[in-house]
Each structure stands twice: as structure tokens, then as C-alpha cells.
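Lecture notes, part 5. Sequence design as translation. It can be helpful to think of inverse folding as translation between two languages: the language of shapes and the language of residues. The source text, in C-alpha cells, appears below.
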């Protein structure tokens, strides 16, 4: 039994209370504080454990990318950033595309100190995963999340034309599909442009979002648009949501913190991501406002660990797991997010997403939910340096940045990790 008392932040209210987590790792009770507990907090905030719905942990069955990251180090970096569970993307050298490859990769996740959900990949010849345990003995679609790369990114799991993509998605009717939205034909037409952002112009995302929304409607998908980076694309998705389309939206920390005014000749390669950091300050602030007001559903890192040597050669992606909690403190201190806003986009909404596919319930501090919590001291600054990182790639785009607060405890199924 673990007991903790302090300021409990659920999506509906913040109040002082006492949480009891049983030996099985589930919350047994939430009650009034007694002044006697294993952990007694003062001004710190206790959130339902943060969940990242977009991570590239890199490990797969051939282990050829383990030098970048693996499920052990990704889990350690997650705990360092206050993340208690994450969903891992499928663009590996050996991607999880069918029941066997999905099961083989899932076995690897068991080494992680945090809970992991796997996306299955959608490729040119794939089908929905099957479950042979149907009551009538016939195979049926298995409920897992899927990821589709509409255009080239890291790895070989992507489509080269809209027609090819639609032909495959017909087989995923009714499934949960997350979209990396960059139009392949626009990317191809701009491949010889001089800079990364010019090779991947805003219209590539906007046009791909239009098509993704059409596919979500046509094939009754539960849709999610990954790392939205353009105000125009965001407005299209929000309009579709208001019309009743079942679609949600991610935004990544780098698209909220950086914009084109911060790019220099020296940092362009380090800050290279897909989609690019190419937005204006006005666009960046619009994304922050949309996350704060509820138009954007998830703060999702797109954690993509590569070595510095790979970055210097032009590889896209940057790591964020270690810095998730400090970044959240920045949202509260400098962007006006209330603690309940943080719970919504870091815990409750991501919990709603992964709870569809996992046996445990995440996202609330209530009896029966998993006893995984994130404790933030929003008034204790932290300077990001290599020495505090757990990610195997050992660098961060936020190095030398001072964030106004930090994670002091990450609790995973009742196991306490003290970070301060």
C-alpha cells in the first residue's frame, strides 16, 4: 500500500486529498487528507500520470536501431519526464504489420518500466490485425491503433500517392487510424528546394489533412491527426470535429516552443523535424491557444531519438521524453495553462485514447484507475543539460533552457521514482 497526500488535479477540480494505491497498482481510495502518509506534499501538484500518445522508442526485433533508444531507456526517459505510459510508433526496420510481428514487438516492451501501447503499421499490402478468438470461431478485426504515413518520413513505411493510400484504407473501415499528414506529391515536387522547410511546405500538411478528413468520413475511422503544425490545417480539423467527425489532434512541444524566428544556420540541422519548424510566431501562438482552449486534444512529443552524428547528416526528429514535465511547467507558468488544462491534454484525453486498447484505466485519480501519478513542483526551476537526461541519444533541443518547474515524483502502478 502506498499513500500520498497533497493537491490532486483531476480534469474537473483541484483539491487537497489522500490517495491510496494498493499492492496491485490500482487506486483503492481517494479521500480527505489525514496528515499521515508515505508522501506528504505542500504546494506540489499531483496529476493523473502523464501519457504520451506519440513516441518512437526505436526498438524492434532486429535491434538495429537500439543504439538510438530501446524500450528500457525510453521508459527511463519517460519516468524522468513524468510520463507513466506511452504509445510507440511502428516505423521500425521490422515494423509490426500483422499479428505475429505485432506480438513479437510487444514482447520487447515488457522490459520497460512504464506501460507501452503499440501502434500497428499500415503499408501498401497490409490488412487489419486479426483476432482468432471470436465467439463464432471466425477471425475478426483486433482492436489496436494504427499509424499511416501519408508521405516519406523516417523508415520505409509510407505511401507515394493518394490512390494507393485509399485502396489500402478501405480494409481498415471502423478502425482507429492516426495520420502523419504530408502530401507525397507536394513533397516530391519540392524535393530539390534548398531548405528542409521549403521541401516540406505548409500546403503539404494542409492538403494531406483535407484528404485524411475525407478518408475518416468515408471509412468511418476513429481518426487522429499527428503533430499538427499549421493554423490552416488546425482550423480544418476543428471545423470537422464540430460537424461531428470523430477526429482528434496532437501537437508537439517543438511546434509550441520554436518558430522560424529562432532558426539559425547553426541549429537548422538539430531542429530538423517532419513536419518542419517553419511556422511564424503568430502560428505558434495559435497552436498554444488551441491546446489551452481544448481544440487540440493531446500534448504528444513525437519523441524521435537520433544521434548527433545522424542529425548532422540531415535526419529528422528530436527527443522530448525527458523534458515533458518541465515543458508542462512552462505551459502553466508562461502560457497561462491551469492545472486542469494540463490534466486534460496530458492525462485525461490521452487516457481516453489508450484505454480503448489496454486492460488498465488511465487518466483520472479515482478508485479503480491505475495508480500511476505525476507530481510537479511548478515553482522549482530546472536547467536542461545532458547530465540529467536518460534518453540513450543523450541530447535535447532544450539544452541550456531554464524551465520554471520540474517533476519531483513519477509513480508507476504504485512504484515511486523520486526525481528531485
Amino acid at each position: 500500500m502506498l499513500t500520498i497526500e497533497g493537491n490532486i488535479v483531476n480534469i474537473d477540480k483541484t483539491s487537497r486529498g489522500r490517495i491510496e494505491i494498493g499492492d496491485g497498482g490500482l487506486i483503492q481510495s481517494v479521500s480527505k487528507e489525514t496528515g499521515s502518509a508515505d508522501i506528504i506534499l505542500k504546494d506540489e501538484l499531483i496529476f493523473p500520470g502523464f501519457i504520451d500518445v506519440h513516441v518512437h522508442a526505436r526498438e524492434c526485433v532486429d535491434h538495429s536501431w537500439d543504439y538510438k533508444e530501446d524500450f528500457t531507456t525510453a521508459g527511463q526517459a519517460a519516468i524522468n519526464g513524468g510520463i507513466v505510459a506511452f504509445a510507440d510508433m511502428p516505423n521500425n526496420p521490422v515494423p509490426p504489420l500483422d499479428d505475429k510481428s505485432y506480438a513479437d514487438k510487444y514482447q520487447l516492451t515488457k522490459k520497460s518500466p512504464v506501460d507501452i501501447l503499440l501502434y500497428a503499421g499500415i503499408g501498401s499490402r497490409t490488412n487489419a490485425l486479426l483476432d482468432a478468438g471470436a465467439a463464432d470461431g471466425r477471425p475478426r478485426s483486433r482492436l489496436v491503433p494504427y499509424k499511416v504515413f501519408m508521405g516519406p518520413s523516417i523508415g520505409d513505411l509510407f505511401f507515394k500517392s493518394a490512390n494507393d493510400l485509399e485502396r489500402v484504407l478501405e480494409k481498415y473501415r471502423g478502425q482507429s487510424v492516426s495520420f502523419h499528414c504530408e502530401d507525397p506529391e507536394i513533397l516530391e515536387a519540392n524535393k530539390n528546394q534548398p531548405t528542409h522547410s521549403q521541401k516540406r511546405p505548409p500546403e503539404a500538411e494542409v492538403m494531406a489533412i483535407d484528404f485524411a478528413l475525407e478518408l475518416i468520413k468515408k471509412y468511418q475511422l476513429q481518426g487522429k491527426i499527428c503533430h499538427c503544425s499549421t493554423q490552416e490545417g488546425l482550423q480544418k480539423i476543428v471545423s470537422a470535429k464540430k460537424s461531428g467527425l470523430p477526429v482528434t489532434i496532437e501537437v508537439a512541444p517543438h511546434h509550441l516552443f520554436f518558430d522560424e524566428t529562432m532558426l539559425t544556420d547553426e541549429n537548422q540541422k538539430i531542429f530538423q523535424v517532419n513536419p518542419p519548424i517553419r511556422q511564424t510566431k503568430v502560428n505558434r501562438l495559435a497552436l498554444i491557444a488551441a491546446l489551452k482552449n481544448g481544440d487540440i486534444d493531446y500534448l504528444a512529443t513525437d519523441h524521435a531519438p537520433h544521434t548527433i552524428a545522424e542529425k548532422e547528416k540531415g535526419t529528422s526528429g528530436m527527443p522530448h521524453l525527458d523534458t515533458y514535465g518541465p515543458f508542462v511547467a512552462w505551459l502553466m507558468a508562461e502560457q497561462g495553462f491551469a492545472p486542469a488544462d494540463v490534466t486534460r491534454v496530458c492525462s485525461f484525453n490521452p487516457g481516453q485514447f489508450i484505454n480503448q486498447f489496454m486492460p488498465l484505466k488511465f487518466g483520472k485519480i479515482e478508485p479503480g484507475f491505475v495508480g500511476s501519478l505525476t507530481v510537479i513542483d511548478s515553482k522549482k526551476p530546472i536547467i536542461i543539460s545532458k547530465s540529467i537526461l536518460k534518453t540513450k541519444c543523450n541530447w535535447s533541443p532544450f539544452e541550456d533552457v531554464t524551465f520554471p518547474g520540474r517533476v519531483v515524483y513519477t509513480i508507476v502502478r504504485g512504484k515511486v521514482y523520486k526525481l528531485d
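The translated text above is only one of many valid answers, since several sequences can fold into similar shapes. Residues 46 and 375 are 5 Å apart (CA to CA).
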